Automatic annotation (TrEMBL):
Gene that produces this protein: rfbD
InterPro entries: dTDP_dehydrorham_reduct, NAD(P)-bd_dom_sf, RmlD-like-bd
One Pfam family recorded for the sequence: RmlD_sub_bind
Provenance organism: Streptomyces lunaelactis
Protein name: dTDP-4-dehydrorhamnose reductase
Record EC number: 1.1.1.133
Primary enzyme class: oxidoreductase
């Protein structure tokens, strides 16, 4: 039986991988809508787009964390109010909603991974807007809404830390990288596969509504991620120097510890994502990253 899926934010880093993942499934009929094709702040457009789909994967988001500090109302219109429109449309149509959220809903002052039910307390405008979206899903879709928090996403499409490190490796001898922020680097392709599994399980009644942490296992720092990226790419990791966050002042505060726990997956019989270093190894073996690494090696 064919299942109809809608992917919003379909031209973004994650959205493009979700489209590719679902496109390989002969039992999935997939509609992908970019920001230009669907403005989720328009409730009428959202209702029309959702109609007829059984699963909606919301990858649409305001992702400019620093920009949200100067434009919190605009960011929250997308990350909060827009998500409410999607949740309401899914509630009316009976569709399952997989909504992508963030570790930034937490303050970052923990010493152990945040469980799914840990109290939230964002430290920046972006996190507050994303939390508003989470609350809309929980309120309107108590039985068919899945909130999937992720963090430190990188992939073949769009701007991301791993690609930036490889590009800079071709331009600079030494790189200063923050060593006092801890998180879970997560490959967008791996997360896309996990979302497909979760959507199928939710439709089958095997995965209940609620919060899931879609991040890699283990954790590291930006400094640790940069060094491992260099090492796996045949570059000298000693070219990476550790610095504190104060070396790169930003308009938006960043949580110092954004590590998430993964208890929801085993409770539903689903396997959490692999460790961050295993994901990175697989990602760097793909053509897009291999080409960046080759260019960096040839310039050194």
């Amino acid at each position: 039986m064919t299942t109809s899926w809608l992917v919003t934010g379909a031209r973004g880093l994650l959205g493009r991988d979700v489209l590719a993942e679902l496109g390989a499934d002969p039992e999935a009929a997939v509609t992908g809508l970019s920001r230009d094709q669907l403005d989720i702040t328009d409730p009428t457009a959202v209702r029309t787009a959702v109609d007829g789909h059984r699963v909606v994967v919301n990858c649409a988001a305001w992702t400019d964390v620093d920009g949200a500090e100067q434009a919190e109302a605009a960011a929250t219109a997308v990350n909060g109010t827009g998500v409410r429109h999607l949740a309401r449309a899914c509630a009316d149509s009976g569709a399952v909603l997989l909504h992508i959220s963030t570790d930034y809903v937490f303050p970052g002052d923990a010493r152990q991974p945040y469980p799914e039910d840990a109290p939230t307390s964002p430290v920046n405008a972006y996190g507050r807007g994303k939390l508003a979206g989470e609350r809309a899903v929980a309120e309107l879709l108590p039985r068919t809404g899945c909130i999937v928090r992720t963090a430190w996403l990188y992939g073949a499409h769009g701007s991301n830390f791993v690609a930036t490190m490889l590009r800079l490796a071709a331009q600079r001898e030494m790189l200063d990288v923050v060593a006092d922020q801890h998180g879970q680097p997560t490959w967008s392709r791996a997360l896309a596969g996990q979302l497909a599994v979760l959507g199928r399980a939710a439709l089958a009644g095997r995965a209940p509504a609620g919060i899931y942490h879609g991040t890699a296992g283990g954790h590291t720092t930006w400094y640790g991620l940069a060094r491992e990226t260099f090492r796996l790419s045949g570059l000298d990791p000693e070219r990476i120097r550790p610095v504190g966050s104060v070396a790169f002042p930003r308009p938006a505060a960043r949580p110092a510890f954004g590590v998430l726990g993964h208890s929801s997956w085993p409770r539903t019989g689903l396997v959490p994502l692999p460790r961050w270093d295993a994901q990175l190894t697989a990602a760097l073996d793909t053509p897009a990253f291999a080409a960046l690494a080759a260019a960096a090696r040839s310039s050194s």
